[in-house]
Specification:
Helix content is about 20%, strand content about 40%. It contains three helices and nine strands; from the N terminus they run H-H-E-E-E-E-E-E-E-E-H-E. The protein is globular.
């Protein structure tokens, strides 16, 4: 076989493998029900996929959700930085009609709220029936957060959530641990 033929066969095999891998993953879906009044409150981040806006965070990462008005959810993200100070970011979330487990979140100023690009998908993709832990992602599988009401999480629970995320096609190699497991 010629080198050119081998190169083509390799390229075809690689494309077929990539297609099968993408098809093999479960779709990213949000939970069918989300009681936002139960979801509101303090959440501690256990782990996340790297994202630009969290690059300065080294610990004590938390999010607080508040019911500010019907259809308007206040968001306050906070974390400890390398110099020991706390960094905070305020935003707002809104429900996605027809999809109870989906929100859109915005950290841009109110006057930019009309711009579609300032709103990001925030899908609750796994949720404890008692709202003790949650896993949040989005359909492109670029972002993922594992959250807990407590500042730590049981290792077995964490491993189950990781397996669930991997089954949905998330690449967890770059996952950043933000809190200890027990």
């Amino acid at each position: 076989m010629s080198r050119r033929c081998l190169t083509r066969l390799s390229a075809i095999a690689l494309m077929a493998w990539a297609t099968l891998s993408a098809q093999a993953a479960e779709p990213v879906t949000s939970v069918p029900q989300l009681d936002i009044s139960r979801y509101a409150g303090q959440w501690h981040e256990i782990a996340h996929l790297p994202m630009f806006f969290q690059r300065q965070c080294v610990g004590d990462i938390a999010a607080r959700y508040s019911l500010d008005a019907p259809g308007k959810i206040g968001v306050l993200n906070a974390c400890r930085t390398k110099d020991g100070s706390m960094d905070e970011s305020q935003g707002v979330a809104r429900p996605v009609e027809g999809h109870p487990g989906r929100l859109e979140v915005r950290f841009a100023p109110d006057w930019l709220s009309w711009v579609p690009m300032v709103w990001a998908d925030y899908w609750v993709i796994a949720l404890d029936p008692d709202y003790r832990w949650a896993m949040v992602g989005e359909p492109d599988r670029k972002y993922l957060w594992i959250l807990s009401r407590e500042p730590t999480m049981d290792r077995a629970q964490f491993d189950q959530l990781k397996a669930r995320a991997e089954a949905m096609g998330y690449d967890l190699k770059p996952l950043i641990m933000a809190a200890p497991l027990r």
